[in-house]
Task: structure prediction
Amino acid sequence: MAREKMESRATDERIRFFRFVNRAEPDECWPWLGQINTHGYGCFGGSTTRAHRFAYELLIGAIPVGLTIDHLCRNRNCVNPWHMEPVTNRENVLRGAGRTAVNAKRTHCPKGHPYLGDNLWFDRGSRRCRECNRLAMLSRPARRKP
Ligand SMILES: [Zn+2]
Ligand SMILES: [Zn+2]
Result:
């Protein structure tokens, strides 16, 4: 009944969807042949549905709430869901950026102390490790009191 109706609708959408997909090899990019929005993403079934998100949910599963889809292949019009990974918005932004992204992703100082809580302090915008600072102080020869 209602369930069957829903399933046939899903199948219709699936067929409609794949009409716009240039499905190459499973590990290649699948360029979207339908409408592309101003950001370079494919649109499906109205401008609000992103084709790549649709592909992901169709072939892999629901995208967890609050996550965005990151294109591992950097090809925004690619709808191959195996080229996508759900990430938080922040991760996505970080991945897109260059050097700042690398620095922000670093969770430990070069000596392996965590950039966390009290151990972390900022010096003119860059992150410093308090523990390293403390060790550096200790290794300095102690000043004798006069
Ligand atoms: Zn791709
Ligand atoms: Zn350190």
The chain has two domains: 2-105, 106-146. The chain has five helices and four strands. The pocket of zinc ion (ligand 2) is lined by residues 109, 111, 113, 129, 131-132 (CB under 6 Å). The longest strand covers residues 67-71.
